[in-house]
């Protein structure tokens, strides 16, 4: 294993931003940054041994600072949407930033994704950690929260993300990872012919603003059924109401047999390159987003203009809008019960 650290630039507040690269014995690598505690690149081989980046991103720190996308970012305090930007906890109603129409998205502005985290060196040559403190009232949330993320890159090309958060009073927290994956390569274009499998028999029904209604819907005989491998194109080309609402997939699936243990929840395959990504997590849900918001304007790392559906995000997480649904797994964080979850993305070829 080899780990290098170099200064990448400074953020808008003048804080130093670094780029950390970890390479395993096979030459497969991951690049991380303390800006957004994000993944900047994941370079793994195709079936012919050609190394390519499989996540979308910018070619400089300036792109990440100016851009609205969440390329490779850590998301918090609360991943996904909270309806009408408010929730009630212990009889007190909290009003959050409304940064997605009338709703709250990904922790508000700036959220964890567009802030510089503290660097924490680890003793292991294949890992690195980042920490951020979110003060009481930030984004409208109660309690002071300290979040620590530890990335570990293995010799068999598995990226483990250990996510921990502690609070000094009750609040709500939901963390996730937001890489935009294209197993054909960062500049390969449309992902519609890549094949997805999800360990899920139900998904969360939403309204036309993608806010959960509270209903769990069986995937059987719908375009939401990925219990067996299915090309994304089959659903994306359909007239299903779920696809029409989101202009693609942007939905949360419920993990079958959830027990809080680290299990495989999804796999993505690109038959052309032969690359396979398996996703494991300890969380009860997973948001799948087919980058419907990429509008053909954002220039990518290698000059490719990113377009609609040029990537897919698989984001294990607690359920969106959980604080407003008593029948959802609780997102309440207390001093006695910290947030302690894991997400893994592992890469191989067939």
UniProtKB/TrEMBL annotation:
<dbReference type="InterPro" id="IPR015443">
    <property type="entry name" value="Aldose_1-epimerase"/>
</dbReference>
<dbReference type="InterPro" id="IPR008183">
    <property type="entry name" value="Aldose_1/G6P_1-epimerase"/>
</dbReference>
<dbReference type="GO" id="GO:0030246">
    <property type="term" value="F:carbohydrate binding"/>
</dbReference>
<keyword id="KW-0413">Isomerase</keyword>
<feature type="active site" description="Proton donor">
    <location>
        <position position="178"/>
    </location>
</feature>
<comment type="similarity">
    <text>Belongs to the aldose epimerase family.</text>
</comment>
<dbReference type="InterPro" id="IPR011013">
    <property type="entry name" value="Gal_mutarotase_sf_dom"/>
</dbReference>
<comment type="pathway">
    <text>Carbohydrate metabolism; hexose metabolism.</text>
</comment>
<dbReference type="InterPro" id="IPR014718">
    <property type="entry name" value="GH-type_carb-bd"/>
</dbReference>
<keyword id="KW-0106">Calcium</keyword>
<dbReference type="InterPro" id="IPR047215">
    <property type="entry name" value="Galactose_mutarotase-like"/>
</dbReference>
<comment type="subunit">
    <text>Monomer.</text>
</comment>
<dbReference type="GO" id="GO:0033499">
    <property type="term" value="P:galactose catabolic process via UDP-galactose, Leloir pathway"/>
</dbReference>
<feature type="binding site">
    <location>
        <position position="250"/>
    </location>
    <ligand>
        <name>beta-D-galactose</name>
    </ligand>
</feature>
<feature type="binding site">
    <location>
        <begin position="80"/>
        <end position="81"/>
    </location>
    <ligand>
        <name>beta-D-galactose</name>
    </ligand>
</feature>
<feature type="active site" description="Proton acceptor">
    <location>
        <position position="315"/>
    </location>
</feature>
<dbReference type="GO" id="GO:0006006">
    <property type="term" value="P:glucose metabolic process"/>
</dbReference>
<keyword id="KW-0119">Carbohydrate metabolism</keyword>
<feature type="binding site">
    <location>
        <begin position="178"/>
        <end position="180"/>
    </location>
    <ligand>
        <name>beta-D-galactose</name>
    </ligand>
</feature>
<dbReference type="Pfam" id="PF01263">
    <property type="entry name" value="Aldose_epim"/>
</dbReference>
<dbReference type="GO" id="GO:0004034">
    <property type="term" value="F:aldose 1-epimerase activity"/>
</dbReference>
<protein>
    <recommendedName>
        <fullName>Aldose 1-epimerase</fullName>
        <ecNumber>5.1.3.3</ecNumber>
    </recommendedName>
</protein>
